[in-house]
Amino acid sequence: QVPLKPGRSLMDWIRLTKSGKDLTSLKGRLIEVTEDELSKHNKKEDCWICIRGFVYNVTPYMEYHPGGEDELMKAAGTDGTDLFDQVHRWVNYESMLKECLVGRMAVKPVAAPKGFFPHVLVFLGRCYNGFLTELLKEPEVFNLVVLSKLLTSNLVFKSTNYDWFQTDSLITIVIYTKQKDMNAELVIVDCQDKQLRGEIILDDHSYLLGIDLDHAVSEDVTVNIAEKVGKVEIILNKKDNIHWKMLGQPWEGHNTFIKCTDRGLFYRKCKLVAKTEVTHDTKLFCLMLPKGTHLRVPTGQHVYLKQVIAGTEVVKPYTPVLPFLPLDFQEPPRHDGVHIYLMIKIYSHGLFTQALDHLQIGDYISVSNPEGNFKKSKIQTSEDLLLLAGGTGFTPMVKLLNFALTEVSCLRTVKLIFFNKTEGDILWRNQLEQLALKDQRFEVQFILSQPSKDWVGKQGKISSSLLSEFVKRSRNDSKVLICICGPAPFTEQGVQYLKDLGYSQEEIHAFTA
Fold it and tell me: What are the sequence ranges of the domains in the chain?
């Protein structure tokens, strides 16, 4: 992020969008935009960007963008969807930029190479007859991008299917994924008001179920998983003991596959049940999932919180933590499956965190499905785990520590290098020190940039010299994994310093959202 000028905060932008000012310079008209027309608007004083087929005039937003004008200019006059997804896929741009909407991109048909269509038709016919109708409408002209999506999503996993059966009191939906090592973290179910949504993560794709149920069911949902054969059961309790003639009406996209990066975020409302102080400006929020939700947030992944502030939807990412660090290693602690814990720093001028802090016990907030690309297998194949955290960049490290120290026997050393401004900013200091005493594999090093005169520990900011002192392999040939999280400059500098010290990209995982 970059410092914004006074009067250019998120709240100021929301006020501007509601002022009635024409932010598109089109006097309320929506137009169809060609690639040629889009490319002409590529300057700071005249900047249009396309996101998912919609074109926005972001010129008035330039000074309000937290990432700075230069980041927006990278997509000026072009389709910025891929760049947007890399940096802020979670941002609700439709709400933030709705007053900047210029119109839709004009669809540009692509002529099929001669002789290409019959071969594709035969292939699709063998794999999935459902797509033939659309393609047959115009057999010589079709969108190759759409075709590639069909080939990479709907056809790859066609072997997955589902079935359902009933008793007097139960509805059971069975999904046969045929994927070994299926587990609770890969299955997400939401059932509320006769609407059932299911998602099963299979590598980099999601298998989706979406149904308006034929009859009412109770709030409670049970999910059973046969891990070795990849069978998932979703069990619903009928409200009335009547025979269902059908499961219900399928949604668009029901019983299909989609790349995880292409599907939108799904939210459910969670109740705030506790809020406790961690430091002078950081609190631990405990949220309770609805009864009809089955969701586990995997280690190293985050969720998004969504609030409506002054009529505009605002979204921010946060990484769930545990209610406390694991100090008893007799048995790995299990998530109760009901609560999500979030450690959040409250900024005095932060619109979003101030709104969070004003939530009362019993209030609700929207929480998304988990997101992130971290794989626990990275830890399971390492001998040294080194964690670099800046401030609340400590949050992903909580579950990493828990998993590493309770379930990974091959690790020789686990070290946390924790950067903060002052002693009062250190999160869970006592718990971390107790953990270091309890497990000889674990070591914690606190480094302060603004220490008091009584501080006897290390001081400074992240630097090559500090990292060279503390980031070391236990043996010359040790397999190492280094995870880093913190403010964007901290993470970017840290990754570069690590590379300068000879660590490869494969040995570094940077948490960004």
Answer: 10-105, 159-259, 267-371, 376-510
